[in-house]
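Journal club prep — side note

Before the paper discussion, L.F. wants everyone to see what a predicted structure for a comparable chain looks like in token form. Sequence:
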Amino acid sequence: MKKEEEFHILAKELLVFYDELDYEVKVILDNHFKDSEEYREIKSMSSFDYMEKEIKEERVTSGALTNEFKSLKLFRQLIMGLLVLSRAILIFSLFSGSDINMTVIKADAILYYVPLTIVANILTFVGFRRRVFWSFLTFDVLFLLAFLLF
């Protein structure tokens, strides 16, 4: 890059903070961007508005950011599915044994379902919204109370 292009890029970056610059720097910028329409537009915006505009332009030009969020959303859906599936399989396996002795079933529930519930609720608390966490926690507590008390 030429020195003039480098100066232009640096000057454009400084425009965002125009109000906070020293007088001498403002004069240099004003002289550099005498007749530029973009300069007047940037100068009239606040720094927050300009950064917001830059972010919007970057999103339009770059589809990679959107793809990253799609894969993150897909990963979260996969984790949610695994959490629900593991609960369902464990609940089904508690009742599907050939030995239908309630004492053994309750012991299996305590031995297998409680650790699963603890780990699954920690993952839910960390990775999902609080509403999902409280829904799972309520289901688990009600299931364990109903199952162990009756």
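L.F.'s comment for the group: Residues 30 and 36 are 10 Å apart (CA to CA). Keep this in mind when we get to the figures.
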